[in-house]
Specification:
Blueprint: H1 3-31, H2 40-59, H3 71-91, H4 102-108, H5 110-133, H6 143-159, H7 163-183, H8 185-190
Helix pairs in contact: 1-2, 1-3, 2-3, 2-7, 3-5, 5-6, 6-7
Length: 191
């Protein structure tokens, strides 16, 4: 067993717990659909976090080419997976009563959610650079502009309660990230 295989089990479990948490939140929303106040922006962010977790899990494959690991490298990728799990956990509460208002929950927790989203993208920077410096993958030329737009938008989302901004950002984030992943990261691994 390689070091990566050993470490990837823990990383996959943590990311899998994040996915499970969101899927359970979706499921509970369906079960209590008659009494819950569902908010489409919140649902969109559930989808966005799923895309994010799956994209990062897929991108972690590049680390399999690293023959020796340092504790710092492990802490970096572990911190990334923990931040993704926490995004899922903040988005959906652990207990969802039948009369829950997701819109109110989303805006009450937006600073935490988007603050953590910002932290996750800041973790992505050294994680991506280390993979490039280790010869595990190239650094896409568009990376710096892509991540700058995402971080700036997440900071604005943390600071504003403007519902139009949040609606636009939920859609924009999905289109921006899936386009980037398709044209760079995911496309290269799958190809």
């Amino acid at each position: 067993m390689t070091v990566f295989e050993y470490l990837s089990v823990l990383l996959s479990v943590v990311m899998g717990l994040g996915l499970t948490h969101i899927l359970v939140g979706f499921s509970k929303s369906v079960h209590h659909r008659d009494t819950l106040k569902v908010y489409w922006v919140h649902v969109a962010w559930g989808v966005n976090v799923i895309v994010y977790i799956v994209g990062i899990w897929w991108g972690m494959f590049w680390w399999s080419g690293l023959p020796e690991w340092t504790f710092v490298e492990f802490l970096l990728v572990f911190a990334y997976t923990v931040s993704l799990f926490l995004l899922a956990s903040i988005l959906y509460p652990w207990d969802i009563p039948p009369d829950f208002d997701f819109e109110d929950h989303f805006y009450r927790n937006r600073s935490w959610f988007f603050g953590l989203l910002t932290v996750a993208w800041f973790i992505d920077i050294p994680e991506t650079v280390l993979k490039a410096e280790g010869g595990l993958r190239g650094l896409p030329p568009s990376y710096w502009g892509f991540v700058a737009v995402i971080i700036l938008s997440a900071v604005i989302a943390a600071l504003t309660g403007n519902r139009r901004f949040h609606a636009a950002f939920a859609v924009f984030w999905f289109l921006w990230v899936t386009s980037y992943l398709t044209l760079t990261t995911l496309g290269q691994i799958a190809g």
